[in-house]
Amino acid sequence: MGWDVLALVDDEAADDRPLIERRAVVRGGFYEMQARTVIERVPPAAGIVQEWAVSPYRGCAHACRGCGARAGHRRLGLGAGADFDERIVVRPNVVERLRAELGRWDGQELAVGVGGDCYQAAEETYRLMPGVIGALAASGTPFTVYTKSALVLRDAPLLARAGARVAVSIAFVDERIRRAVEPGAPSAQARLELVSALVEAGVECRVLMAPVLPLLSDAADQLGATVRRIAATGARVVEPVVLRLPAGTREWYLEWLGRAHPALVERYEELYDRAGSPSEGYERRITGQIAQLCRAYGMECGAPAPVRREPRAAQLALV
Q1: Please, which residues have CB within 8 angstroms of residue 103's CB and are 6 or more apart in sequence?
Q2: Which tens digits make up the pLDDT trace of 77-86?
Q3: Cα 6 vs. chain centroid, distance in angstroms?
Q4: pTM exceeds 0.85
């Protein structure tokens, strides 16, 4: 006689390998992991107005040292440093899950690409974004895409028809700083040209001037040069965000700072609180300077008001 034996301990719980090693399939250097849910809370460290986001990819090959999404890799059993830059997690079922979750969504605006740039190199292989845009547009959900990559131009017609907003991050125009703190990202010049191309394509585009780096990219002449060149692209709105250093990001950024600019480490420790936020006085001074520069160049400054739309009713199938 055969017996069915029920395990007393869940196999997955008993497996002490990192979550990513248990659930992901490695293909072409990427970690494919089926998502259980895709609409997630935006971490406060992101510094953006949206409270919820969808990210087709986790981790980012742009390797920006100040990226506030780094801690998310720890929940997968990976490191928040080099692993975040090199071990990119792909959610191949993101469109399917998003459509299901939007059926219950209340119309709040979503951010796209917070956990990792949604147009980084992995998108060339997986092409998830057209489906994401289509799902959001069909449901009438307002959304903003956050990116540094010119690959977004591939989907400019889709974004324009969907009435989406695109926020391109350009925190500074000094290429030496970019190579040090955003080694895998496109140059500032390439991103400025991207903004011009999006504006010309009829896509609502603003510049996320983020992150402003204390004592490295916050001098008056640096801020002035950045705003001046942004204004020349035709962008109408600049949204400044001072660097945040939440857990995960803090360790990775300060480790680099200790090697590259050891004299600044103590000053950073004084400037940032335990949560990784800069002092209110410093942040107010920097954003005030940028706002004054924007007025001089005829641009708006600051975060836009969050958008909410009534969700569209689900279409009934004909029988």
Answers
A1: 139, 314
A2: 899 999 999 9
A3: 43
A4: yes
